[in-house]
Amino acid sequence: MGHHHHHHHDHTTGNIKVAFFLNLGFTIIELIGGILTNSMAIISDALHDLGDSISLGLAWFLQKFSQKKKTQHFSFGFKRFSLLAALINSTVLVVGSIFILTEAIPRLMDPEQPHTLGMMGLAVLGILVNGAAVFRLRGGESMNQKVMTWHLLEDVLGWVAVFIVSVIMTFADLPILDPLASIGITLYILYNVIVNLIKTMRLFLEAVPENIDLEDIINKMNQLPDVQSTHHTHLWSLDGEHHAFSTHVVVPSSAGKEEVYAIKEQVKGIIDSIHLDHITIEIEYEDEYCAMHDEDEGGQHHG
Question: pTM of this prediction?
Fold first, then answer.
């Protein structure tokens, strides 16, 4: 089982690695091609691809890195580093998108005719290269791989748009279509990046993971027989996939070992549907809890 799991991880890392080299090589061709064909649409798509190359590179590195075992300094392991990758990548794409908009918007006033046959050739190459990378990554298990597959699928669609624009411009004198396509692609990238950036920041700030109702969990715990109250209940995520949960449960002073064990199992049952890697359930007896609170109110802070 362990061997199979390890092999699966190697396969994922290998897929991301192939997609990274495909993408990076193509991005370089594309940037040069965009400058030679004088096409803003191609340059903006090249930026999109550069962003994807950075994310693929980081994803590949972090897919390997996040599998490292926890250390003395990183007791949760290295899963959270993938958030750092998402943050760096988003920042690069936001800066790049703003730069492209400052270049493309003035071109609307004075559009220049790009070299349409060159654009068409690059678009076909773009569809093939990104299509191959999507094919290589599709069906991935990890969140990293799924996100990358979507990214590359968007690239394929971007190239289809560039292809259509270049075909129209070959037969019609409409050079304004090039900066328009560029602005369209860039705004689309920017929208998606900002959505992802908000999600990443939520995780960084240790917000309760989306789609989980913490209030509901607390109510269910408080309704359990033998549970007097709960406090210090926290639920947060390491990387969007792996979550952690901790709570303090106050039980009657008379509760024995069996009751305590049963309460812990019932609490685990309530949070069973959530993918939790770390669960901490601290049991406090009612008389100790009250004494502790009395002490706190008396001005002596209990450690």
Answer: 0.68
